[in-house]
Amino acid sequence: MRLSRSPGSRARSCSLTSKLSNNKHRPDDVRSSFEQTLTDLGVDYLDLLLIHWPLPTRYDGDFVSTWKAMTELVADGRLRAAGVSNFQPAHLERIIGETAHSGR
Asked: CA-based angle 55:53:103, to the nearest 5?
């Protein structure tokens, strides 16, 4: 079965959510991972993509760049929302603090 719908579709029976793999947090890997997820699911759009863990000991603890790359996918229109999972308040405060001026 192939599920296909566009971002403007009004009829919805489900929401599609996926998580960014822990080994795909580098900003350059975010888009390719997203594209592969769309291909694997046979869709052209996701409702929500999550950063599963902040991974402060990997990628020099730079989950903010991962977040910024994900918000670029939202701006492109094929991802409705970016989100996080398993983040602590300090992680969220860092994202907000480092992105508030950019609107992302």
From this structure: 95
Q: What is the pLDDT of residue 103?
A: 52
End-to-end CA distance of the chain: give it in Å, rounded. 35
Reduced to 3 states, what is the DSSP secondary structure of residue 48?
strand
Answer for the pair 63, 55: CB distance below 8 angstroms, yes or no: yes
pTM given for the model: 0.80
Residue 102 has a pLDDT of 57
Amino acid symbol at 32: S
Which position has the higher pLDDT, 59 or 85?
A: 85
Helix residue ranges, H only, 1-104: 27-41, 63-76, 89-99
**Under a CB-based contact definition with an 8 Å cutoff, are residues 49 and 70 in contact?**
yes
Distance CA 27, CA 49 (A): 14
